[in-house]
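pasting for the record
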Amino acid sequence: MTQLALLLQQGSTGNPTAEGIFHFFVGFVLILTLYCSFLGFTYWISKDE
């Protein structure tokens, strides 16, 4: 829990560190992957064969 508080404080400073930028991109890629997987699944389940 203290790590989460430190990450939140770290993001609020205006001086981003390499670790904060890395965590941002990891989260962004994870969300983008889930979103694209969902779109691919809905396309696959709805196509007519």
